[in-house]
Amino acid sequence: MIHARLVLLAEAGEDMEKIGRSIEPDNLPNMNLLIGEGCLSLQFSIQKPGTLLTTMDDLLMNIKIAKETLSVAEDR
């Protein structure tokens, strides 16, 4: 079993709670999302290295889309 943690720190003006909540529906049963002040931490366990890479890629893409969507919504 491979255990991983992805920690993201907020950039100026970013609301990590909104970003975290927007990706929360994509979480698998083996994922734990922690939202702190100015950071987002995702902890999860995976069986295979290839699955780890795919999961990380999916998470990063979903976070990028969430950030872009929130940015556009705030501009309107």
Please tell me about this protein's structure:
The chain is α+β, with helices and mostly antiparallel strands and 76 residues long. 46% of the residues lie in helices and 29% in strands. It has two helices and three strands; from the N terminus they run E-H-E-E-H. Strands 1-3-2 form a three-stranded antiparallel sheet. Strand 2 (31-36) and strand 3 form a beta hairpin. Helix 1 (16-23) packs across helix 2. The longest helix is centred in the last third of the chain and has 27 residues, at 49-75. The protein is elongated, with a radius of gyration of 13 Å. The N and C termini lie far apart (45 Å).
Distance between the termini: 45 Å
Unreliable stretches covering 5 or more consecutive residues: none
Query: What's the rounded overall pLDDT mean?
Result: 87
Number of helices: 2
Spatial ordering of strands, largest sheet: 1-3-2
The fraction of residues assigned to DSSP E strands is 25-35%
User: What Rg is obtained from the alpha carbons, in whole angstroms?
Assistant: 13 Å
Which H/E pattern describes the elements?
A: EHEEH
Helix content: 40-55%
Reported for the largest beta sheet, the result is:
3 strands, antiparallel
Shape: elongated
Query: How does the helix and strand content classify structurally?
Result: alpha+beta
Report the strand count.
3
